[in-house]
Amino acid sequence: MFKIFPIKNGLENVLGFYCDGVNVGMREPDTAGDVAFIRSDEPCMVEALFTRNKFQAAPIKHFQRYPDGFETNFLLMNAKNANAMTGEQGIEDIDALFEKLGEKISLVNPIMSSTGVIGYRLNQEKIATAFDRFDYNSKNSDTTARAIMTTDSFKKELCFKIELEDGESFHIGAICKGAGMINPAMATMLCFVTTDADIPKEDMQALLLEATEESFNRISVDGDTSTNDTVMLLANKRSGAYHKEAFQEALNKILFELAMMILKDGEGANKLVAFEVTGAKNLQEAQTASRALSNSLLVKTALFGEDPNWGRIASTIGASGVACDDTTLTIHYDNLLIYSNEFRELDEEREEQAYKIMKQESFKVVCDLGLGSASYTSYGCDLSYEYVKINAEYRT
Amino acid sequence: MFKIFPIKNGLENVLGFYCDGVNVGMREPDTAGDVAFIRSDEPCMVEALFTRNKFQAAPIKHFQRYPDGFETNFLLMNAKNANAMTGEQGIEDIDALFEKLGEKISLVNPIMSSTGVIGYRLNQEKIATAFDRFDYNSKNSDTTARAIMTTDSFKKELCFKIELEDGESFHIGAICKGAGMINPAMATMLCFVTTDADIPKEDMQALLLEATEESFNRISVDGDTSTNDTVMLLANKRSGAYHKEAFQEALNKILFELAMMILKDGEGANKLVAFEVTGAKNLQEAQTASRALSNSLLVKTALFGEDPNWGRIASTIGASGVACDDTTLTIHYDNLLIYSNEFRELDEEREEQAYKIMKQESFKVVCDLGLGSASYTSYGCDLSYEYVKINAEYRT
User: Fold this and answer.
1) What is the distance in angstroms between the Cα of B189 and the nearest Cα belonging to chain A?
2) Last residue of some domain: B264, B285, B320?
3) Which chain B residues are closer than 8 Å to A385 by Cβ?
């Protein structure tokens, strides 16, 4: 009925969108840019999900001042400064920037997104120097994806082309940043998706909600949620093609893969682990137990130590408050039985196999509570010395 | 009206109680013991608070099989093995041990407490060798306190003598273990308090609840709660003296000081920080925000890095879900203003002062939400490389 296949890089193949990133000196110049844009040659639809943190950053408040259903033709992004906890001044600073930018290019409801340190005003002068240097007709997804990185060790971008039965096709491209402050309440990250699909306006929100729930809402690096988290979908209808089911599947796929990239890039992380809780009394309890596992410091350090210490898994489930029973509980690492009522102690052979599984770059921890039929999977990573180092030294 | 003063060591001055610890080879012999006891020469009252973890360890289930209000004359303790997730067998193992022990000394409703690794049966033979080696008439608080240590780097014991106006006096002694898996839902620890005060049975529970709420329920090392957490009060009335207010004050003091010792010994921790949240709409919200701070990985690593990055403090409060507003919020480190609506950016002078405060071994982070009059203080520590090392390598 339809085919979804990955094509090159990130945003460049999506019709009608342009992007570029430059370095204005907020970040050490040889690494990457620090200011970037995505623009649509005509005003496009925009749907966004923002952080649940009560202290939403200035760019989010600025966005929310536009009337529901507004269209935009310009998204400005910067790294190194979150423009958060900057009060009314932080919002005025955005307007001032757009006033200057408006002298270079025609703007319709321009929006901004920022990431970096909290509590400092944007450096207007530095950022404004980008406006003369941007190539507004560029499709440089690479410089754009690099310019929004903070502690990321690699850029994150993806593109899918979706071919429909009738020969029509559309594209979804995305860039994303995130490595720490990742919690399953959207995770601390920015993700910008562009598409030339001809999406009806009324579909936009539901499509983005489902894809986000299946991806960014299921990953944890350190259980923290930032002031700036954003997932944004920009759609300009340019291809004239659309197929709801195909679009949803492709969007789910793209956001899920980006979420896994964030985990793999988790600050100091070496392993990607899926925590699958099954047999829970209800979905809420499955989710609670699964998220407790992906957030537990003791589980995360045991993963780093490659120690098949299933007691920490059991203890974390017990501490999470969900209904559980040690006679119905079973724990598997991939397909290896680690704990059940009958096999409470790991014999040498199974322990040896468990070590092997834990040495993999990614594996599954499956906990069946044996009390019902609800299940939930979240994704986490190990916690290494490197995490502590990165976060002890971040601001300096 | 009454005087409370510290006297030597832990349990040895409390009338009618005896204790000793030996090494039976579960721990490397040169460091400390691994099996210990506390006994009362006549059956004494016992009140205990246990972990909220759903997977309560076998010794806790064994305790709960006795009828309400039972008296005991013997508490057996061991380290290195939690006897948790061991099922019915774990409880039978305790009974079997007490059958052997009963051949050496008369037992009335004996109880047990264990700490260590989850998921292995107790080594009956090794533990039973202690029964021949215990000095049942010893008052060796030192060997007893050392025998319950796990990742603790120092033993924890305290004793207070309380002198009443009429010249009468009584004692409260305590030993405690804990360094990691510490969360404000009693913390992962064992604490045993003995007293010769003539407490009416009906006062026991309220006294212990209040003292625990003000101490162990307010500390966090890593946000995890174990299967074995126990705070236990053993009272034999031997002194004939009692004064409720004096007892409560002394018990609060002793448990608070032990809780602070746990934090100072927090795995790899270098700093003790009080997180005082004031001006909250209600107590629940003050507690939620305060605990979010003491549990946050990003706050803890910033403390380790001695970085006055108040953005992480603000962001954590915002993410905790409590009502808050960046125009009414103020943040102080000790008495230094770090953030307010008027002073959103740290100038160089205040930043310099903030560095100095953060270099101290202990200091206060005070967050006034400016929305009400409720307040709550919890206590936490920094997160260092050492924490990761200890917990990656724990079981081996």
Assistant:
1) 14
2) B264
3) 385, 388-389
Residues A151, A21, single domain; the answer is yes
- Minimum-distance CB partner of A296 among B224, B309, B310: B224
Cβ–Cβ gap B222/A180 under 8 Å: no
Contacts of B185 in chain A (CB under 8 A): 319
Q: How many residues does chain B have?
A: 396
Same domain? For B183 and B286 the reply is no
The answer to whether residues A216 and A347 belong to one domain is no
Cβ neighbours of A326 in B, within 8 Å: 55, 85, 87
B56 and B75 part of one domain: yes
| Number of CB pairs, chain A paired with chain B, less than 8 A apart | 211
Look up the domain containing B52 and give its range.
2-264
The residues of A carrying an active-site annotation are: 188
Domain boundary among A224, A246, A264: A264
> What CATH number is associated with residue B228?
3.60.70.12
The token duo for A3 is 């085919």
B212 is catalytic: no
pTM over cut 0.80: yes
**Digits of tens for pLDDT over chain B (396 positions)?**
899 999 988 999 999 999 999 999 998 876 789 999 999 999 999 999 988 888 899 999 999 999 999 999 999 999 999 999 999 999 999 999 999 999 999 999 999 999 988 888 999 999 999 999 999 999 999 999 999 998 888 999 999 999 999 999 999 999 999 876 554 443 468 999 999 999 999 999 999 999 999 998 888 765 566 778 899 999 999 999 999 999 999 999 999 999 999 888 877 778 889 999 999 999 999 999 999 998 888 888 888 888 888 888 998 999 899 999 999 999 999 999 999 999 888 888 999 999 999 999 999 999 999 999 999 999 988 887 776 776 666 553
